[in-house]
Amino acid sequence: MRAYTIWIFLALLVLVMSFLSPNFLTSQNFTTVLKNLAPTALLAFGLTLVFLGGGFDLSQGATLILSATLIASINPEGAIFFTLTVLLIFFIAFCIGSFNGYLIGMHRLNSFIVTLGTRSIVGGFVFIHAAGMVVSAAIQSPILEYIGLDRFLGIPVQTIIWVVIAVLCWFVVKYSPYARKIAVVGSSVRVGKFSGLKVEGLQMSTYVFNGLLAGLAGILIGCQTSHIAPALVWHYDFDAITACAVGGISLSGGKGTIIDTLSGVLLLGFINNSMIMIGVPYKWQLILKGLVLLMAIIADMQSKKSYA
Amino acid sequence: MREKTILERIYDFRIPLLIVLLVIAFSIISSDFLSLRTVNTLLLLLPANGVVALGVTMVMIIGELDLSVGGVVALSGLMMVKLLPLGTAVAVVVSLAAGGFIGLVNGVIINKLKVNSLITTIAVGFILSGFSLVFSEGTVFYENKVLTGFGNRSLWIFPYTTLLYFIMTLLIQYVLQRSTFGIKLYAVGGSRISSDYSGINVTRMGIVVFILSGLFAGLGGVLLAARLSTASPLRGSETAIVVITAILLGGTTLGGGYGDVVKSLLGILLLSLLTKGLTQLEVPAYYQSMIIGVILIFLLYVGSRLSRRE
A13, A223, A290, B126: which could form a disulfide with A147 (CB 3.0–4.6 Å)? Predict the structure, then answer.
């Protein structure tokens, strides 16, 4: 029921906007929206798994910025150098995810506070690396330019990457026993333990997965823009949380599919796009998006009450 | 109850001991550290985060968390500066009331609608950052001798704002330990269900605590704006993490039902001492936020180890 509501909302928004703005219902605008969704979508898919396991991650925005600043400032030319850089970034993202996962999964620490701390530490690294400034490096490497700005068969490469990841995540969450186990642990750690599941390892793996996707999202951003203002990119993780909440991923664990997340991501992407098209000032965009998140979490709680 | 070992006795006094050790370390490294001037500037740094910690401590005693305090600090500071033409008293009172109102909204959503306090206050904080930008998109300056005088003048080495903060801490400590409100607060934090069965209005306690947290965060914003004679929408971005780290450092725990505001004062003092010393050693601010992150995670880790052993 909930999932349909979001798709109906999305259809209504597109309908209304195509009357309000002549530039809205064009293939160019839709291509842009889908392309710009790439980082939010990747973060939201990673977060879906974390939410499914009953956790929370506030550090993915920081991982994203670190990875974006690294790839933009290293600016690797040549296939081998590029592959090595990407591997290095994935390794760092893996370490951040494992660090979170180890403390939260193995030591049962509060996921909000741990990832708030990680966010501060990783964010500190970014500011030290950039000396508190906007990272600005002209992209010279053709590989980065291809990933960031080019098209393949008329579709932006970024869009292809996030759609492929979406299909993979959808398949994993829907059909793999791994995702089933995570959902069990997410809805009740006790039940998970009594059914003989390795609760600690399962929860830890969701953070590793999420860290890797945040690393990938950062690589896409680093390839696309040569200016990375560390302070601005914080909003990507807020968008990802909102997308999950709007899509109907339960913030208390155990419930949610990638299709739900996708509906939230698309709705949020088109809301962002519409606000820019109508000319809503940035400050009011923040307020509106905050209200959307607040309503989504309240709706999540109300739906749970009606279950019980 | 068994006797405490010597190590456990030392552990109970770890915060004052650490404060003394840090003072000694900093005065060895930097020869001009140990002076009345340093004490005065250090004390001047306490109240802005300290009063915010008063409210957040009570929220933590009841077993919840408030991450929107940073947004309240920014908003109330800006509001006060913008309302100054209407009179100093009006500006201060309205800004405090705004903080209380935001706390009320948090409290109602969390306690009436039963939504997770962390995610609610994150969302509310995001909305507040938007409203701060509505008031001003950059730093605003103002001239008001009464306010900046109160924010910066000192009685010998004690700034007025710090004296206010100390008095409020003692007052709240007394309320927590001696009044029925305090007893109920610890009871609800200890066990919601049994408090509910023993006739405590759990929902109302939860809402009151969040109103107080908003009110004190508003006061934090006002004191900060009074000290710096400016306000900015970017202020308060670190408040939540610093305050929570300080409170945990002081010994109040995340689980609820335990802790007090004197502990938080010691935590704030220790953290400010660390920041002040690092600034004096010319360590850049980004390292300081990293160090705070490390301390926060370390405290959580140690806390969980200790509670497991019991």
Answer: A223
